[in-house]
Amino acid sequence: MARLRFPLIVAVALFLTGLALTAALKDRHYMLLSLLLLGAALLPVFLRLERRKLESRELVLLAVLSAIAAVSRIPFAALPSVKPVSALVILSAYVFGAEAGFIIGAVAALVSNIYFGQGPWTPWQMFAWGMAGLSAGWLRNSWWMKKRGGMLLFGFLWGFLFGWIMNIWYIISLPEAFSWGLVMTAYASSFYFDLAHALSNVFFLAILAGGWTGVLQRFRRKYGLLQD
Amino acid sequence: MGPSGGGKTTLLRQLKRELTPVGTGSGVIRYAGLPLAELPEERAAGEIGMVFQNPEAQIVMDTVWHELAFGMENLGLAPQVMRSRLAEMAGLFGLEPLLYKPVHELSGGQKQLLNLASVLLLQPKLLLLDEPTSQLDPVAAREFIQTLHRLNEEMSVTIIISEHRLEEVLPLADRVLLMESGMLKAACPPRELVSKASEGTFAAVQSYLPTAARLYLALPARGKSDTLTESIPLTVREGKRWLHNLASSAAGEPPGGNPAAAFGNNTAALPHKVDSTPLLSAREVTFRYEKEGREVLRKLSLSLHRGELLAILGGNGAGKSTLLHVLSGLAKPQRGKVELARGITAGFLAQNPLLYFSYDTALEELQHMAAFARLAPEEAASEISRLAEAFELQQVLQSHPHDLSGGQQQKLALAMVMLLKPAVLLLDEPTKGLDPDAKVRFAGLLRQLLEQGMSIAVVTHDVEFAARYASRCALLFDGSITAEGTPADFFSSNYFYTTAVNRMVRDILPQALTIEDVMTAWQGYAFRSSLL
Amino acid sequence: MSSGFRAMHPAVGLLYYAGLLLFAALITHPLFLITELAGLILLLLLQGQGRQLLRGLPFYLLMAGSVAVLNPLFSHRGAHILFYLWDQPITLEAVLYGLIMMLVLLTIFLLFISYNYTVTTDKFMYAFAAAAPKTALLTLMAIRFVPLFQRRLREITLIQRFRGIDVGEGSLRKRMRDGMTLLKVLLTWSLEEALQTGDSMKARGYGIRRRSTYSIYKMDWLDKAVLLLLGLSGLIPLILWLQGYGAFEIYPRMKPLVFGSGEAVMYISFCLFVLIPPGLEGKEIWLWRSSRRKAYPSVTPEPNGTRSMSSPLR
After folding, report:
1. What is the pLDDT of residue B418?
2. What is the fold of A59-223?
3. What is the DSSP letter of B63?
4. Is there a single domain that holds both residue B384 and residue B416?
């Protein structure tokens, strides 16, 4: 785990500093740059996946969890912001760890967008859900994440974080107008959506937590899958 | 061959190195002179191919061509090699029209053929098959076995297959291994096994043999010439020829009179005190899944009476499962009416028992079901223990439902349905994938339920099962019931769609459907012939 | 189904859409943006995606339009002040910049509609598999599972209704809980089966060596020619842009649009790049139409009204 955490932190830090740097330099092409940086943030985990020797069962397990997360998005398509994906990704990461969580989140975003339409938002969603999984995996051994309330709070926070990450790609199309006012406007306009997402996360986590972690942990035990 | 849980799968997995289960083992398996463990990885993967039971679960990729290429990609073959092999295989299997289809559009039989083809692309010298046809309907199963036969005859691929459906496989086999509780009980050519089965120790094998062989064993009057094992019949054709020889030597002239009279009530082994008022009836029901879709059921009328076992037969995609959905009230017909007699409920058991399970132990499943059925706690407990006993589930109540065997899962699901105390039970393909003994046991279970006054409708492909246990049969074709009647009337009027026994003896005993029928009738027939 | 531009090698499509994305982000000259937008609309119409375009348009216009409104509200730089709103200056530059960004966003949205149609997942994965074979494999497997799981979920929903698990009945809380129970059944079942999938992969030699890739795409001379043409016609505007041509400077002070000989070369080359795929599609349509008219006039007579029995006998 420790080997993985370092390059990832570097990548994420790189991404954030990159964004900040370009904003400071008043370069005009944030959109391209942000895509490049997103790629840089997604790269390390996938690179590790490529390098790592994965048992076929582990690969199928990742595919199944990603596909279930993607499928779970379909019945709720009519309700904006109600996406069980976040909850499923967080729970999968809670059981199988940060790396698996990131991959499941990112692949679920990519695959579900085959049905919802790919767009400039795809890499951002991959990043946001991937990060939700990654952070849940990192924190899974902390005392408060093991508590029910802690996990629910975590889900609540990610509801907002997800929305905020998704707002970035919108905001960077207005580099000249960048100001705290604009950020506030963008975030305020998405507030209710984010709140709905956060609350649905809490709800899904609350009813899923016991049952799903049970099922996943049974599989992990039974077949010794994805042990760190 | 051998009963479920006898170690067939374990044996096959020992032969396929990649899948050898964890555990302790001793002894050596040699492949082409080399111990299996020393075989290079690529040879082990390529030359020993394996096809499993579940057609759906084996597919890895999203489209047919991708799936076919998957194995070859794993072995790192060059694109040119892959292309020519794929072209060859697509031609052999007639897969060309399917090549670009997503796999989820294929039928079960097509999926299993795809699995076979994608293994064959690695050019195996040894093919291991673990009950490959148990999830297929008879037509697809026959096609699959024919393909195997061709591979064996034309390409001389060595094939090791474990099967319950031996009617078609056994006549093609060179050698039969009989496994029981992890032991190899016999290893000999099929006809030798049949002759062994007539002796005491192998009597249990009988239920696994093809009908012709069982008939051969069952009839007492075997001619003197029949001591030769070569003359033991395995197929319907051989059986018919043998029977005619036997009949002419016994009687010397064609039979006269109506032998059907000789076996009176024996056609249905299950009791049926049929009541005239229907418990469940469908009147001119029309159903389609989508507004613009095909009419799956068309002005269909059917009724189920108290205490009867109705078998609904029909080809693939005839809408049999849909009919059960409509009868059980899970789907609402667009036109027509489904009526259930006052105060009773209908229970429905789907083909796949896994659909029913959502808790961690079998006991929990039953308890939650009892709670849903609004049973009082004491009543629930007693009911559960009664059902567990009747369904032989006591040992596994604490297990996870997914860890049970297929037969146990089915029984557990049935027990869950029974907690709702239905008066009518609707079963979708309950005999699929069961070994012959399990089938007999399952029929026994149904018999108990019928004796308790339940009515059962079974949708099935299993002609033999319907002929033996049903009190009434109905044929679903083109969305409605086209023929209906007692098994004797129903099947004896069919030419192809009837039991193997009937196909063998129809010239002599047109109404005999099962071996028991023939046995009872034969005595009368032989007796009468000897008088003349 | 698959014809014209769509039937070409994936590399062609990827190069085209990547190029369009790059130009949309780099060249803010309104003429170029409008040309790109028009080219895309033409391509979409030729590909028969007009309906898709109309369906998405309200959302796209809302998203892109909000940019045009928000920019002048929050950006107050620029020399030409039009008027004051809530004591904030609204500048001509900010309005124009907002409009330009609106065009950029619209272009990107339309680009993705066409992309979703042309570069199917299969093609994307093909291009991807070379760089990241395991990720591509994982994604393909997930793609294969999605329709399977949807079907399973339907079956589970139907059967579980028998034990009172029904998302269509009861309080919202119960319905959502039931929905999750259904997903849990799906999860348990699918994970159990996934182990068999894993076995089947292993049985076919997964993981013993580096995988090769089978491809159903073959690059023919037309693919190569179009690739070359796209590459060249894309490179020229890019190089010229690096030289400073085609720039439209708004901030801090709007400069007049220049359109010199450099821009002319750049624009012609750019038009070529944008219009090659619509051209290919158009050619295909024309080809089929003319072949239907000319080549086999007698073979496929249109059945109209009463059919004469004598015609096959003649």
Report:
1. 86
2. Arp2/3 complex 21 kDa subunit ARPC3 (1.10.1760)
3. B
4. yes
Rg (chain A; Cα; Å) = 17
Is the pLDDT assigned to residue A187 strictly greater than 60? Answer: yes
Distance from C-alpha of A163 to C-alpha of B276, rounded to nearest angstrom? 66
Task: Identify all chain C residues contacting B82, using CB atoms and an 8 Å cutoff.
Answer: 212, 214
The alpha carbon of residue B471 is apart from the nearest alpha carbon of chain C, in Å, by 27
- Please check whether residues B481 and B404 belong to one and the same domain: yes
pLDDT band, residue A67 (cuts 50/70/90): very high
Residues B92 and B137 in one domain: yes
Q: Does A68 touch chain C (CB under 8 A)?
A: yes
Phi and psi, residue A208, nearest 5°: -90, -35
Give the DSSP letter string of B123-182. --SEEEEESTTTTS-HHHHHHHHHHHHHHHHHS--EEEEE-S-HHHHGGG-S-EEEEETT
pLDDT of residue B260: 41
Co-location of B133 and B17 in the same domain = yes
Which among B293, B285, B297 is positioned nearest to B321, based on CA atoms? Answer: B297
Task: With respect to residue B193, please indicate whether it lies within any of the assigned structural domains.
Answer: no
Q: How many CB pairs under 8 A join A and B?
A: 4
Q: Which residue of C lies nearest to A53 if distances are taken between CA atoms?
A: C207
Tell me how close the Cα of B332 comes to any Cα of chain A, in angstroms.
22
Q: Which residues have C-beta within 8 Å of that of residue B170, sequence separation ≥ 6?
A: B1, B176, B190, B209, B210, B213, B234
The answer, yes or no, to whether ipTM is higher than 0.90 is: no
Q: Which residues contact C26 (CB under 8 A, 6 or more apart)?
A: A29, A32, C238, C241
Kindly report the nearest CA distance between residue A44 and chain B, in angstroms.
25
CA separation for the pair C147, C155 (Å, rounded): 13
Residue by residue, DSSP assigns B229-257 as GGG---SHHHHHHHHHHHHHHHHSS---S
Under DSSP, the state recorded for C253 is S
Q: State how far the Cα of B445 lies from the Cα of B413, in Å rounded to an integer.
A: 14
CA A140 to chain centre: 15
| Structural domain harbouring B289 | 278-499
Q: Which tokens is B514 given?
A: 């099962």
Inter-residue contact C178 to A150 (CB < 8 Å): no
- Between residues C39 and C130, the one the model is more confident about: C39
Residue B246 shares a structural domain with residue B282: no
Neighbours of B146 (CB within 10 A): 12
Does residue B302 belong to any structural domain of this protein?
yes
State whether residue A164 sits within 8 Å of chain C by CB: no
Across the interface, which of C147, C202, C210 has its CB nearest the CB of B76?
C210
Write down the pTM of the prediction: 0.83
Chain Cα centroid distance, residue C61: 17
Residues B453, B520 within the same domain: no
How many C-beta atoms lie closer than 10 Å to residue C200's C-beta?
26
* Distance between CA atoms of residues B132 and B188, nearest Å: 22
Are residues A55 and A210 in contact, defined by beta-carbon separation less than 8 angstroms?
no
Of C156, C197, C204, the CB nearest to B355: C156
* Residues B474, B313 contacting (CB under 8 angstroms): yes
Domain check: are B512 and B494 in the same one? no
Name the 3-class secondary structure at B312: strand
Is there a single domain that holds both residue B258 and residue B304? no
What gap in Å lies between CA B71 and CA B57, rounded to an integer?
16
Residue ranges of the domains in chain C? 4-124+244-281, 133-203
Q: Which of B507, B506, B504 is nearest to B488 (CA)?
A: B506
- The pLDDT tens digits of the residues spanning C140-160 come to 889 889 888 988 888 888 888
Closest by alpha carbon to C101, among B314, B502, A30? A30
Q: Is C142 on the interface with A (CB under 8 A)?
A: yes
Residues C285-295: tens digit of each pLDDT: 888 777 766 65
Q: What is the CATH number of the domain that holds B56?
A: 3.40.50.300
CA–CA gap between residue C110 and residue C40 (Å, rounded): 7
